[in-house]
User: Fold this.
Amino acid sequence: MAENQLAPLQIDPATNPELASRINAILEEHKDKPGSLMVILNEVQSKIGFVSEQIQQFIANSMRIPVSKVHGVITFYSFFTTRPRGKHTIKFCMGTACYVGGAPQLIDKAKQLIGIEMGKTTDDGNITMEECRCVGACSQAPVVVVDEEIHGRVKPSKMTTKIRTLERQDSEG
Ligand code: FES
Assistant:
């Protein structure tokens, strides 16, 4: 199993004391602030990397609020993920300029090459594919963001090379 791929046990604070103590520290620090739920969920996403259903339950219990409230926030904002992301993330801008400029064709090509659906991570934990909103580089549409680096005017051939490089890096690495 790849190092960043976590077994179900590891995404559940009830059975993973280290995870529970990291979340407790975040809860402790922020729970009395206004808008605390959003702040806590943001912190968990950025420090732990995901907010699994088990973590949502843990936070709801600790804050004495219904888990549906936590779940509502997680599903509303697209930057929350319920599973750990892969080592590399490829985001496809779905803003108007990129959409019109060929994003759907790039996505089809990437799905074919990587063998996963949008929003999923490869079984080896190497690559996650996601959609994103406009990243402000519309003049370079279509835009693909690979590990936070923006690539503009991406053609299917260029994307193929990039994906193969990511896959090679992992097998070498
Ligand atoms: S629409 Fe893609 S960068 Fe703006």
